[in-house]
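Lab manual, section 2.4: Encoding a predicted structure.

Procedure: take the sequence of the chain (337 residues), apply the prediction step described in section 2.3, and record the output as structure tokens. A sample record is shown.
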Amino acid sequence: MSGLNAMTDRPAIRGQTTNLLWPVVGPLLGIGFVWAYWPTLGSVVHRWSHDPRYSHGYVVPVFAAIVLWFRRDRYPRELLQLSWWGVPVLGAGAVLRLFAAYFYFDWLDAISLLPTAAGSILLFGGWPLLRWAWPATGFLIFMLPLPYQAEIALAHPLQDLATAASTYALQTLGFPAVAEGHIILIDQTRIGVLEACSGMGMLVTFFALSTAVAFVIERPVVDKLVVFLSAIPIGVLMNLLRITVTGVLHQTVGSTIANAVFHDLAGWLMMPLALGVLWLELRLLACLFVPVESTGPVPVLVAPTGSVSHGTPLPCRPDGSGDPSHERRQPIETIRQ
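Recorded output:
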């Protein structure tokens, strides 16, 4: 019996031990993580500050913290335990760093942040803690700049799409807009759709936003996938709206206000507008896919075998013989002629 009690209490003891270790191990782990990745983090923050396409990187950790806050009721307080499976995951992160340093592949060095963070969580918290924290850990990928090859592959098609769609929208509104390469001509006004205005930054930002919303909402997997993939049309739509409004302002109120709106105000307005579009999308999905409540079988009274209590009436048969209030009818004699 004592052995059985020891086996039963072992997970609780492990969980209590791990909970006691975290206040000490957590800060030390964070300090060691920052010290090891200080050059990489400095390079990433430099891109956030000087490249407008990645200025959203500052809010990605905030979004990750919000995701964890919404999942706080799932925090496995009593199931935390040390797991040596975190060691090979940490080793994978170290191998990625060595490979990136050997081949001068900066993006691979940055992406090694994710297995290193996941391995640390797994080592000191076990699988329950990793299952709780993996959405926020994986979400951190949106704060990392894309590889150079991916940027080149995406920038030019997005520039072409933004120029053509904005020119068509301005023509639809009645303005004499003509596209020449990546420049939109409206009378004497020239609006250049540069590489920074291609919409790739908005696309990455809205992917991060839609992913955070998909993690937070309590919806079926199909709805979450639709919300995640909707970042592509929302990003393209917001960039189209931004360029079109700039062209309209150039023709109506002047270049000074138009440039101020394009470079300053529009960047702050796109995020609330995208959230509004996501809200409308969720409302539409709720109207299109109505959850069906499953109904169980209808309860039927069954007469018990043996004696029957006088206080419980028997169910009526079709002929009424089971109904106590049924008056027995005398058979009708048929008079035969």
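Check your result against the sample. The chain has two domains: 2-143, 148-288.
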